């Protein structure tokens, strides 16, 4: 059943991309819209999709998937974006996209098991240290609302948001240590990062909602882009299918929607992972909704609430049903969300700032995580390699996206160390 879920997700996602209905990469939606409007050829669209997504699959999705033995959704859906958009959109191209997408999903799942076994035969098994790549992400992620506030409003408001979030985090730590929260004889443990994240998001949306549209300057997104919203609604059945499949696969702990919840799942903290996924979903609603309304191209994971459903549903079949219902509700509510975003332009504009803040934070966290992992694999040499790798990549004009430098560098150190041990020029690190 697990294999079937992943194969079907790969096949359906590839079909959605092939038919220009939905793509996972946020940056691809406006480009797909250009192709729909006839201003971009299919070949150029396919090449652009490859250029935008391939590096993220190899440098971002796969390393996280390997480190936790749980599929990061980016691994599969960024790949199906490429598969669907490269194959022609015709009577034979679409079935081929579905077949390749399904095989890609199957290969990712079975290849993952093979990779784990392969590591056991290496002189230096660096799979466990590789897990350190994502460790800083969970802790540092709580800072992104403060950065988003600073980017959109002011540095002073950003500092205030960060300070309050940090205080709340430490209060949560104190409450946990003292066992102050109880239900009956059971002590309740707060997730300190989750509490800080919620406070930060409250500050962000409070500032955003105070920024109302000036009289006469409002743009009715729902009416301006009514045809595009209608196009998304016409394809709601497809979204229900893939939403159901992804919610089910998440409930089976086969995949996660982001690095934070993935690392929490790897630590066995499913409830905390659900809270982190919910916070992320709330933050992404303005971005996903505004790009969907403006382009007529949706995301195969919608607002990412289906991951929250998967993590909190009591069993896989309920997750499947609720996942389908949730994504149906999202699509049907798009027009109302458009009107809300139009009423509060600060909330609408926060979408891009949230994305920028997350990206900047992940760049820093993954670089630190990659350096720590590399140094665990090869003490001393690991820090040296990651520092040099990062600086040379910057000097070369960033051929590897910053967010991928830490994970890719850690994997490279693991490979180099194994080669040196086999050649006899390095002892197995202790």
From TrEMBL:
InterPro entries, per the entry: Uncharacterised_YhfT
Annotated transmembrane regions: 6-24, 68-87, 94-113, 133-151, 158-175, 187-208, 236-257, 277-298, 305-338, 364-392, 404-428
Keywords per UniProt: Membrane, Transmembrane, Transmembrane helix
Protein name (Swiss-Prot/TrEMBL): Transport system permease protein
Organism expressing this protein natively: Oceanobacillus profundus
């Amino acid at each position: 059943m697990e294999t079937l879920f992943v194969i079907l997700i790969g096949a359906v996602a590839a079909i959605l991309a092939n038919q220009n209905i939905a793509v996972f990469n946020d940056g691809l939606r406006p480009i797909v819209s250009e192709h729909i409007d006839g201003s971009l050829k299919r070949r150029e669209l396919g090449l652009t999709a490859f250029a935008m997504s391939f590096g993220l699959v190899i440098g971002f999705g796969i390393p996280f998937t390997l480190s936790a033995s749980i599929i990061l959704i980016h691994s599969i859906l960024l790949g199906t974006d490429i598969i669907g958009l490269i194959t022609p959109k015709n009577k034979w191209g679409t079935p081929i996209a579905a077949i390749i997408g399904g095989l890609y999903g199957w290969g990712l799942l079975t290849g993952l098991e093979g990779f784990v076994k392969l590591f056991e035969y290496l002189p230096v098994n660096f799979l466990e240290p590789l897990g350190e790549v994502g460790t800083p992400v969970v802790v540092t992620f709580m800072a992104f609302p403060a950065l988003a506030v600073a980017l959109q409003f002011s540095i002073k408001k950003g500092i205030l948001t960060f300070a309050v979030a940090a205080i709340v985090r430490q209060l949560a730590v104190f409450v946990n240590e003292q066992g102050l929260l109880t239900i009956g004889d059971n002590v309740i443990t707060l997730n300190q990062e989750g509490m800080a994240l919620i406070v930060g998001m409250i500050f962000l949306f409070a500032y955003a909602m105070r920024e109302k549209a000036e009289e006469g300057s409002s743009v009715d997104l729902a009416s301006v882009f009514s045809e595009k919203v209608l196009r998304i609604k016409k394809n709601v059945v497809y979204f229900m299918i893939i939403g159901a499949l992804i919610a089910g696969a998440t409930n089976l702990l086969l995949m996660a929607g982001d690095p934070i919840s993935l690392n929490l799942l790897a630590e066995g903290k499913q409830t905390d992972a659900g809270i982190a996924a919910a916070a992320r979903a709330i933050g992404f609603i303005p971005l996903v909704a505004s790009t969907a309304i403006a382009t007529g191209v949706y995301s195969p994971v919608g607002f990412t609430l289906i991951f929250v459903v998967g993590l909190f549903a009591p069993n896989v079949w309920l997750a499947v049903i609720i996942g389908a219902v949730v994504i149906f509700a999202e699509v049907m509510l798009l027009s109302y969300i458009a009107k809300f975003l139009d009423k509060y332009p600060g909330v609408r504009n926060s979408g891009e700032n949230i994305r920028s803040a997350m990206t900047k934070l992940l760049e820093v966290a993954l670089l630190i995580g990659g350096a720590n992992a590399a140094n665990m694999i090869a003490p001393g040499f690991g820090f040296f390699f990651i520092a040099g790798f990062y600086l040379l990549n910057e000097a070369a004009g960033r051929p590897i996206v910053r967010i991928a430098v830490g994970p890719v560098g850690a994997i490279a150190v693991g490979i180099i160390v194994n080669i040196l041990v086999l050649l006899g020029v390095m002892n197995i690190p202790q």
